[in-house]
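pls ignore typos typing on phone
iron/sulfur cluster + seq
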Amino acid sequence: MLEKREILGWVTFGGRALVVHPLQVAFRGRPGVDRFRENFLPEGLVPTSAADRRLLRGASRCTSCHLCDAAGASPALPSLVPLVFARSSLDLVHARPALAALAARPEVLEEGERLCPSGVPLRLLADWLVDRLAKVDAAAGGGAP
Ligand code: SF4
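k done
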């Protein structure tokens, strides 16, 4: 048999869950999500959408054969895109010079894709990484250092 104060506790708990919390979400949104993004997006923790995950499946086809690296003498090797840069957005800021070098020579990635036996979408991945880096920069206060 429940005691009076236990019943009161369950009513209070249920009232918060069923009434107060939905009203808070309806009127002020989900501030926890916003605060999470404010805190972690500048550090490189970019949300990954379903479309991002589909693109990353292309990166996971990479077998580390390094045939694409024969594409050209760009300062950055094309194989770094799927093997290093696409692995984690946390270190993306350190990939900035290499991504810029690859963006300046799109023919290297194009040739790398032609040489790749696994069909890794190097150009799409590089564009996607540049876009993610821009999101990190915007969250960090706008602009690369
Ligand atoms: S050629 Fe393709 S599979 Fe080989 S390292 Fe380059 S991207 Fe990866």
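The pocket of iron/sulfur cluster is lined by residues 62-68, 79, 82, 115-116, 118, 120 (CB under 6 Å). The first helix runs from residue 4 to 28. more later
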